[in-house]
Amino acid sequence: MKGQAYITGVGMSEVAVRQTRHPLLLTLDAVREALDEAGLTIGQIDGVSTYPGRMPAYLGFSPVGADELIDALGIRARWYAGGGEISSQLGAVVAAATAVRAGLARHVICFRTVYEAAAMARPDEYPPLRRDRVDGASQWTAPFGAISAANWTAQYAMRHVSKYGLTREQLAQVALTDRAHAALNPRALVREPLTMEQYLSARMISTPLCLYDCDRFTDASTVLIVSSGDALDEVRCTPVRIAAMAGSVERHSWDQAEWMACYPTGAELWKHTDYTPADVDTVQLYDGFAFYPITWLEALGFCGVGEGGRFIEGGKRIALDGELPLNTFGGQIGAGRLHGFGFAHESVVQLRGKGGERQIPGDPKVAVATSGGGPLATALLLARD
User: Fold this and answer.
1) Segment (H or E) for 219
2) What is the DSSP string of 224-244?
3) Dihedral pair phi/psi, residue 221, rounded to 5°
4) Segment 104-140, tens digit of pLDDT
C-alpha cells in the first residue's frame, strides 16, 4: 500500500552471554538473516536507523553505530540516523517508518546491538563507565543510593502496591510467563521454567522487585527492515504493516515525572488507527523489569489504571493459549536483554505464523510492540493486512 511503512525482513544473531564474536560481526549476522528473509540484497538498502548510536564511553551498551554498518556493508544510504535522544529504543523504527513514508528511503535497516555481558567479562577491551564526580541527572539519585534503574522503577511499582494493592504474586506472573514462553524458544537465553516458590524466595533487589523481576545482560544483535509500501514488489516475505506508532517523554527525569511515559504513549497510539485494544491478538511489552508490562497493559487500555495486577492474576489471560498472549518469545527476562527490538521482532514472527512451538493459536493478525520504561516510551501497532 503506497504511503505506508512495513516491516519486511527480521533477523537476529546468536543470543548469549560473554560472546567472543565481535559485536559488528553479530550485527552482520542479523542483517544477513533479515535480508535473506525479505529477499533483498544489500544493494537495495538505502537507509539505516539505530538506537542509540555508537557510544565510545560505554561500548558495552552500544558498540556499533549506523556509520560503521554503512561502511562495513558498502551501503549507499540516502538517509540514516542514530541517536539516544528519541522516545526510546523502538523510536529508531518510528524514524525509519517516517523516512520511508516521506520518500527519503525505500528499504531501511533498523538495528540494536548490545554487548554488555561480554564487556563486563573483558573490561580491558571495553572499559566500564566511570565518573570522578556526580553530575547531570545522577546528582538527584546517586547520593541517595538510587544508582540503578531497578531503584528508579521500584518507586513507581511501590505506588501500585500501596495505592492499588499490587501483590508480589501478581507481579510474579510476568516473570513466570516469560520463563514459560522462553522454554519454547530455541534462541532464548534461559529455558528453565520458574516456579512461584522460587520467585517468592529470591533475594530482593529494590522492593517490590526481586532478582527474577529483572532482565539480564545479553550479547546479541536484532535487525528489522522497514520498507516503503511502494517497494513491496521487491520483497518475497509477508509484509507486516506499521499501522500506528506513538512515543512520548513527559519529562526526561526518573524522579520528577508523575507517571511513566507509557501512559500518554498508550493513549496516543489509538488516535492514529481504527483498530482498538479488542482487535489485538498478542502483546509484546517491554520488560526490563516485570512491572513494566503491567503499566503498559493499563496504558494501552486493556484494563484500567491500577488494575494491571488483577488483570494478569493467575497468569492464564497472558499465557500462550490465553486471550492476550504476552511476550511469547520469553521477553527480556527469559530470552535475554535485546533492549527493545526483540518485541518488534517477535511480533512479526507471530503475525507470520513462524513461532514454532511458541506460536499462538489461531490466525493472529494484530500485535502491539513496545519499548521503554520510566520517562521514555514507544509503541508500535503492527498488522498483517
Assistant:
1) strand 219-228
2) EEEEEGGGGGG--S--EEEEE
3) -135, 140
4) 999 999 999 999 999 999 999 998 877 778 888 788 8
Q: 3-state class of 97 per DSSP?
A: helix
Those residues with Cβ within 8 angstroms of residue 22's Cβ, 6 or more apart along the chain or in another chain: none
Question: Under 8 Å CB-to-CB from 252, ≥6 apart: which residues?
Answer: 137, 375, 376
In the numeric block, the cell 526483540 is attached to: 342
Query: From its phi and psi, is residue 289 left (phi > 0), alpha (psi between -120 and 50) or beta?
Result: beta
Read off the pTM.
0.97
3-state secondary structure of 161: helix
Res. 250: pLDDT tops 80? no
Sort strands 47-50 and 79-82 into parallel, antiparallel or unpaired.
Answer: parallel
Pure H helices in the chain:
23-38, 66-73, 91-101, 116-121, 149-164, 168-182, 196-201, 262-269, 291-299, 308-312, 331-334, 341-351
Domain definitions of the chain by residue range: 5-124+216-383
Residues 292-315: pLDDT tens digits? Answer: 999 999 999 999 999 999 999 999
**Cα separation of 143 and 130, whole Å?**
16
pLDDT confidence tier of residue 327, bands split at 50, 70 and 90: very high
| Structure letter (DSSP) for residue 56 | G
CATH number of 5-124+216-383: 3.40.47.10
Which residues are CB-contacts of 56 (< 8 A; sequence separation ≥ 6)?
Answer: none
- Asked whether the CA dihedral 266, 10, 184, 360 is positive or negative, the reply is positive
User: What's the rounded Cα separation, in Å, for the pair 248 and 375?
Assistant: 8
CA 157 to chain centre: 20
Residue with cell 512451538: 357
Q: DSSP alpha helices (H): ranges in 16-166?
A: 23-38, 66-73, 91-101, 116-121, 149-164
* Other CB atoms within 10 Å distance of the CB of residue 65: 21
Q: Which helix (H) or strand (E) holds 284?
A: strand 282-284
The angle formed by the CA atoms of residues 383, 32 and 380, to the nearest 5 degrees, is 25
SS3 assignment, position 191: coil
Cα pseudo-dihedral 161, 164, 168, 169, rounded to 10:
170
For 383, phi and psi rounded to 5 degrees? -135, 135
